[in-house]
Amino acid sequence: MNLWKNKLVVLFAALTLACFATPVKAKHGVSIPVLNYHSIGVAPGNTYVLHPDTFARQMDYLAAHHYTPLTLAEFASVLSQKMPSPAHPVLLTFDDGYANNAEVALPILQQHGFPATIYVSTGLVNTPGYLTWPQVRQLSAAGWDIASHTVTHPHLPQLSKKAQREEILAARARIEQELGKPADTFAFPYGEYNRTTMRILRGAKFRYAFTTQPGRASSDQPPLELHRIVVDSQKPFEDWVEQLSEPIPH
Ligand SMILES: [Zn+2]
């Protein structure tokens, strides 16, 4: 009888210890900061145009602080916990498809061996200021992942279901045809979407979609509503560092 009682006490103690030894950590999954860039150029006062020197300084910071920029496939593996996360993962994304992403950002990233992902609006390709298809192929050959940001960059919730489908599916089909690789992730123009948008993405089996909701992308978020950190060129460098290294939200 006494022995049995002792065993219970030991069991209880072990359970208590287990509870306290495992703090709040890892209740949920993993989170990864996803930085969202647009144009890398010189346009003082424009929030979405980041000076090349600032961009270079940010990439130097990532390298110096042992960040590991991921490919989209690595991002998917880490987020779905099929692959252990490096100590400081980050996904670098560019929206819209500006020519300077190939002409200015690519050489800076290549100095560090960093990959990136670009969300291209296919209707803007080959227009002034935007990438040409040969430049898109150049980025793809350099290890960038290319995915869809619609055809004409519309406000999706203002469109009919048919028009939304066309914007989303035609852009993806064009990229897949040009590059011969799947483009099953998406970024919402202006971060805007409605139920129809989500139904189209689910129906077409898009794997991930990025909003402009601020914060880290996390395996706790719906895969078609992942958060990103939009890089604001008007904010001080310290703010960028702070956003990047914000504590994991659990
Ligand atoms: Zn955009």
UniProtKB/TrEMBL annotation:
Instruction: Name where it mostly resides.
Output: secreted
* A Gene Ontology molecular function term of the record: hydrolase activity, acting on carbon-nitrogen (but not peptide) bonds
Task: Alphabetically list the UniProt keywords.
Answer: Signal
Q: Which GO terms describe its biological process?
A: carbohydrate metabolic process
Q: Does the keyword Signal apply?
A: yes
Q: Which InterPro entries match?
A: Glyco_hydro/deAcase_b/a-brl, NODB_dom, Polysacch_Deacetylase
Q: Which residues form the signal peptide?
A: 1-26
Q: Among its keywords, does the record have Signal?
A: yes
Q: What sequence ranges are listed for the domain NodB homology? A: 88-250
- Any one Gene Ontology cellular component term annotated for this protein: extracellular region
Q: What is its subcellular localisation?
A: Secreted
Q: What is this protein called?
A: NodB homology domain-containing protein
Organism of this sequence: Paenibacillus oryzisoli
